[in-house]
Amino acid sequence: MLRLTLIAAALLAQSALAQAQAAKDGVPLMKPPLAAPAAPAAPKAAAAEAFQTIKWEALVPADWDPFKEFKGLDMQAMQDGDPRANEMLKRMREVWDSAPVNTAMVGQAVRLPGFVVPLEEGKDGMKEFLLVPYFGACIHSPPPPANQIVHVLPRSPAKGVRSMDPVWISGVLRSVKTDSYMGAAGYRIEAVSVAPYSEKAR
């Protein structure tokens, strides 16, 4: 029952994410939602240092379908201990943990809102964390696909940041696979800024 529950939770989480990406602001629906307003135009002189505000859906290749191998799945037909459930959970994690990145976004200077999943904390602040698109991911529910997780290394430890805090991060997006005990990330950002979330990007 536990394995089936995990599978259902993961599928529901990704389904909710997919629905949220179709929302007007393109950011997963929360209470309240994290909005990703368009970044104001930067002066030409500062163009090289400007960060483009992006939506989580921009990190997923347009032709990648996270449910391709699981369509037609009938979980209700499976009983506790069904070996098919074990195999399905294993296969789902393999597919999602190796989810492809959107190569068009690699190397871009971006600003992205999300929730913090701590990896390393110290007296000076958060030294390393995962950024995820919806509350509870990796902690209260299974990790989303790797192309929906960003490994964040702040330039200096982020102070006052706690687990599941909503934040804005800014930095250059890299295609670096990171496997951690909290989930597999397909992207990495060495963040020049980690700021508390607000409706207006900082």
Key terms:
five-stranded mixed β-barrel; globular; alpha+beta; 2 helices; disordered N terminus; two-stranded antiparallel ribbon; 202 residues
Major sheet attributes: 5 strands, mixed, barrel
**Gyration radius, to the nearest Å?**
17 Å
Task: Compute the separation of the termini in Å.
Answer: 45 Å
The percentage of residues in β strands lies in 15-25%
Strand neighbour order, sheet with most strands: 2-3-4-8-5
Ordered list of secondary-structure elements with their pairings:
Layout: H1 2-21, E1 52-53, H2 83-97, E2 109-122, E3 125-132, E4 150-152, E5 166-174, E6 178-180, E7 183-185, E8 187-189, E9 193-196
Parallel strand pairs: 1-2, 4-8
Antiparallel strand pairs: 2-3, 2-5, 3-4, 5-8, 5-9, 6-7
Structure description:
With 202 residues, the protein is an alpha+beta fold. Strand 1, helix 2 and strand 2 form a beta-alpha-beta unit. Helix 1 runs parallel beside helix 2. The longest helix has 20 residues.
Summarize the structure.
The protein is an alpha+beta fold and 202 residues long.
